Amino acid sequence: MSIKKYKQVRVIAILFMISIVTISILLKLYLLTIVAIFTGILFLSLVHTNNKNLIDERELSIQEKAADFTYSIFAPTIGIGAFLLLIPSYSGLVVFSNGEFLFLESLGVIFAYLTLFLISLYSISYFFLAKKFGGKKDDE
Amino acid sequence: MMNKLKIYRVTRNLTQEQLADKIGVSRQTIIAIESSRYLPSITLAFKIATFFKVNIEDIFIYQQEENK
Q1: B66: closest CA among B35, B39, B28?
Q2: Which residues in chain A touch residue B25, judged by CB atoms under 8 angstroms apart?
């Protein structure tokens, strides 16, 4: 399979999945939605596994840069977001400690854990990839 | 880094699409390499050089000034 054909198959599979999901949502057949999503993911991952060598290196390079860019924007954003959302709750201002603003604290806590999770995931991935590609200090 | 990929491709009467298929990359990659917007990996550079039966440095020209 050529790269062009692989991309075409991928686009067709995604379009097919989107149409089935749309139809099943419109008909309120939620089980069909779940089945369509899982079948689509399974099909795409099978196609991807069987054609790993067909992924263009320029595309991979773009994906790496995009992932790095996304991480460098998303992590500080939710980190600062968590900080800003938690400040009012811990500042002692009564208006933020109860009533309709109470959800802000929960949202802040969720954002804080999300930031920690993201940083941990990045660090673990970085550690394993550095080990895989970097070698050890005593290797000569 | 500059390259003579376009010259080699045109000399062999190949389209970007044909070269891309033979090397196993997308046409966009060939376009990006030819216009020096993308530096290929050493593996791809070797593939290209092997395809044209020349040395890598015949196609890809390293310019010392880039590192200064």
Answers
A1: B39
A2: 3, 56-58
CATH of the domain at B61: 1.10.260.40
pTM (predicted TM-score): 0.68
Per-residue pLDDT of chain A (140 residues; tens, 9 = 90+): 667 777 788 888 889 888 888 888 888 888 888 888 888 888 888 887 777 666 788 988 999 999 999 999 999 999 999 988 888 777 766 666 666 777 888 888 999 999 999 999 999 999 998 888 886 665 55
The stretches of chain A forming alpha helices (DSSP H) are 3-26, 30-50, 57-90, 94-97, 102-134
Q: Which residues of A touch B21 (CB under 8 A)?
A: 2, 4
Contact indicator for B36, B2 with CB cutoff of 8 Å: yes
Domain extent at residue B36: 2-67
- Residue B1 CA to its chain's centroid (Å): 11
CA distance B25 to A58: 8
Count of domains for chain B? 1
**Spatial contact of A114 and A67, defined as CB atoms under 8 Å apart:** no
- Across the A:B interface, residue pairs with CB atoms under 8 Å apart total 30
Number of H helices, E strands in chain B: 5, 2
